[in-house]
Amino acid sequence: MITDSIGNYLTSIRNGLLAEHKVVRVPASNIKKEITKVLMDQGYILNYKFEKDGSHETIQIALKYNSITKIPAIRGIDRISTPGLRKYSSAKDLPRVINGLGVAVISTSQGIMTDKKARQMNIGGEVICYVY
Prior knowledge:
25% helix
């Protein structure tokens, strides 16, 4: 039985946005923490907090909405590389999401980063997800 914890993480965020929740709680792992930091740096979420309750660690994510129109900051969040089919990209072939308006989250040898930063550093890696 293979479980896709990153896919579940992204789906929790997507479902929280559709239900217009202010906060989403997801189980934590090191890669999810790094993806959350990238989402925060790019302005897609308001804030996050890592909580430890005994042996379980969770990430509490404050979702971001437009204050007037109530439209979420994240219009779409799509899983690209899955456990059954990994998607890798070289530095010159890194994808551009909506012609640069969105970001691709890339797992590289230097850590988790956006496609723009990976392009600047001239390194490729596994394309985890698209956020726009």
